[in-house]
Amino acid sequence: MTLSKSRGRAAIVGVAESDLGQVTEGYSAMDLTAQAVFRACKDAGLKTTDIDGIFCAQSQNRFAAMALAEYLHLPEAYLDSTSYGGSSFMGLLAKAQEAIAAGLCEVAVVAYGSTQRSMGRKNTSPPEYNPYESPYKPFLPPTAYAMAAARHMHQYGTTREQLAEVAVAARQWALLNPVAWEKKPLSVQDVLSAKMLSYPLTVRDCCLVTDGGGAVVMVSTERAKTLKNTPIFLLGEGHCTTHASISNMHDLTVTGAKRSGELAFARAGLKPKDIDVVEVYDAFTINTILFLEDLGFCAKGEGGSFVSGGRIAPGGVLPVNTNGGGLSYCHPGMYGIFLLIEAVRQLRGECGARQVAGANTAIAHGNGGVLSSQNTVILGTAATL
Amino acid sequence: MSSTKQSPYGAHLSYLQKGQLGYQYSTVAQKAVYFPREFCPYSGEDCLEWRISKGLGTVYSTSSVFPKDGVAYNVSLIDLDEGFRMMSRVETIPSEDVKIGMRVQFKTHTPEGDDPYPVFVPVAA
After folding, report:
1. In terms of CA atoms, which chain B residue is nearest residue A140?
2. In whole angstroms, how far apart are CA B2 and each of A12, A364, B5, B6, B14?
3. Which residues, numbered 11 to 30 in chain B, qualify as contacts with chain A under a Cβ-Cβ cut-off of 8 Å?
4. Which of A76, A156, A258, B74 measures 20 to 30 Å from A19, CA to CA?
């Protein structure tokens, strides 16, 4: 989606998470989705009855937008359930903007919810059988990311300690986020000595398994002028699908983020050096290294040293995953919506102890499947339009 | 009317049942295609022919998976000499001894009561 004609015609005016962590038994994924929608509308100064566009993806509802339309009792809302994993929400946000610009809706909500912790992963996202992979029993998704990490280590000398630095930085950010799941400090040694899941990744190289939902409300720019919040704009988006199964990924050290990032930056008219806050989909420690390289924040192969020594932690040279990330804040399975929420909050300047001073531009990079679907968005304040 | 036409997976399976690693080759794109498909995705043409791999390849990447109970087992990505990649495992050596760049040879593994599938063993030095 080029967004060339829709840029500036819609704005993000509300964001919210649902309850996170582990919710009471009996809550459904749609309860949490709707809870986040309710809160995001409240944040925007709107009611759920104002919504006329639903953009929803989930692993627990096959017809996610339809189910949310039912919950919200919005029989005529414009619906989009496009789903390609955790990066879906970047694409759904771009689609919402295009739909608003095309006059298909005026108040759009991008929404997600999951109860994968309280209900268990095998009940909430059952593995799909693939005759060319399943017989070997890869522990997916971790084994796919483990093989990417192993290849990066082989080609570039990246170390397990450098992978661990990503988890340590995420934890330091999480300790500044009151709603983060993890509450205790983490050391490189803690990561290395944690239970090995799929070599070279230990359980601390892997994202959390939590419940949670999130929602982003986008309205026409005209409507935004009537609302209280500082409007945040989508400046550019890019998407690239390199494969679905890990055995079909051409080069495990170069992701589709290279292309999705190029597209998003070109469309936004910005470069990596222009970005104030970086939110990347850290389902595994190797992700942060791969995406910082592929999005152009450092050279290919240098991600390991780039993330080390606290350089992406609070007080470092580049603020990355300021909410604590999927590694330490929350990860209900399709994490992309939370990257958008944090980017918007940073741009609105309301992040308290973890606020990046004077942030005007943010990148939110989503990843879906097993490094399969890469979807980048660049957001900015009105000053950047 | 029910069809008796062999599926892409069915054709692949037939080769395995004969102890062979079959793969498709695009005569238009002039490259191997794997996993098996209905047509060539590179050219968009109906130009795939089945070939039999020599079964020699190189470990592209590898991981040891640690199950909750039991011993670690190997999962690898193998680059076959004919230019296609597949997921498999390397057998006969401990999983942690499987290294990127190692030369490996295909063999068929036939689990009891299930479809055969390709596995690999190290090529003797």
Report:
1. B65
2. 53, 49, 9, 12, 20
3. none
4. A76
